Structure of Pimeloyl-ACP methyl ester carboxylesterase:
Amino acid sequence: MSPSPKSSASATQAEPVVRLPLRGGFALAAEFAGPPLGPRVLLVHGGAQSRRAWDVGVGMLSRAGYRSIAIDMRGHGDSDWAPDGNYALEHWAEDLTQVVTLLAQDDPRPVAVVGASRGGQSALLTAVALPALVSCAVLIDVTPQNDESGVALIRSFLQRSAEGFDSVRECADSVADFMKRPRRSSVSGLARILRQDADGRWFWRWDPRMADSRFVRPPSEQILMEEAARNVRVPVLLVRAGMSELVRAQDVEHFRALLPTLEVEEVPGIPHMITGDSNAAFLPAVIAFLRRRHRSAG
């Protein structure tokens, strides 16, 4: 199946999920939305999320005239789990470069890549690898250097989640405890983004092997990101969550020192772990950046 269906679908009409075959014998799930001839925006979720994290953003981009492609990365959502169990940043980035290359076979126009957290890291590495195919990159609350205490909290949460939960309510309590906010009164909607195994335990829709400490911010990630920041040649926007547990003011300045052309927008009131699904808070800044890029390119 063509990775970018050519249809007369309207901006709001649902389109079938597409399977994008990658090297290694597995495939990623992708969902297209918005005007077929609109400028394309590839949306990449963070670790332990899925393309569903972009549902609100997809609608906002469609109404703004953009053609969005939201993907499930390896081991997440409806995509295949990595046969070798590898989920390091370099594996994410390799997959993303393959996706961008596939998209270019169907439509040669460069694509904007917007990624949250691990997805943002992958977006930057992909922009360096494929400067002719990536028009710009947007990183949602992730920088080459990050607060190690915040990384440790995220690592602990992922490792606890990988063990599964006895009930949907227990899962909701775990999230509320991590986010330091009250649990929502209704948890019924949570079940649609969980899976239940044969023993009745509930898990997030990602491969539990992803929580292996080898894959959650090893020292090599900072080296990869710093090198990418020095070498990227396309416009880059950093959206910092105002309540981020991960990105500090000094981390932003470190990023600027590596990439003097970096644009930065700070969005108050949101922490790192909900940047992937609080689209309405930061998408206006992303859309404004995309419009500036398209005007300057034109």
Remarks:
- Strands lie at 18-22, 26-33, 40-44, 67-71, 111-116, 134-140, 194-196, 202-204, 236-241, 263-267.
- The radius of gyration is 18 Å.
- The first helix runs from residue 55 to 63.
- The chain has two domains: 18-146+219-297, 150-211.
